Amino acid sequence: MSDTTSSRTFDVVVLRQDGPGLPSYLQRFAVPYEADMNVISALQKIAAMGRTADGKAVPPVVWDCNCLEEVCGACTMVINGKVRQACTALVDRLLEANTEAIELRPMTKFPVIRDLMVDRSRMFATLK
Fold first, then answer.
1. Phi, psi of 42 (to 5 degrees)
2. What is the band of 123 on the pLDDT scale with cuts at 50, 70, 90?
3. H or E, element range at 4
4. For the purposes of burial, counting CB atoms within 10 Å of the CB of 100, is it exposed (0-12), middle (13-18) or buried (19 or more)?
5. What pTM does this model have?
6. Beta strand residue intervals within the chain, DSSP E
7. Which end of the chain is more exposed for a tag (fewer CB within 10 A), N or C?
8. Phi and psi at residue 116, in whole multiples of 5°?
9. How many Cβ atoms sit within 10 Å of the Cβ of residue 76?
10. CB 39 within 8 A of CB 102
């Protein structure tokens, strides 16, 4: 976590992919810190900034979310190496375990649509 005289930030590293079958790449974002943030809040801040940590303008990170109450599972992604729901993954706790950055990756068992959004249609078809 970085401290400056005007604001405190933390880094979020996102494994991005511009579309199905395209190569993936990492991007680092410096996110303004607020107490009691979850990963969804951090992604919303990244979307509002539209810039990487080094100032490069980028399109918003794509992710999925729905209920924000740990019910639907739409926001599930790999957070610091563990499959978790982003709505209940608290930034303060993640930073305690990994002070360098919070790393976000898409789930590995499903094809990537874009960035952190995956295609779960085969799972829903099986549930029918």
1. -65, -40
2. low
3. none
4. exposed
5. 0.88
6. 2-3, 8-17, 24-32, 76-79, 82-85, 102-105, 112-114, 117-118
7. C
8. -95, 0
9. 21
10. yes
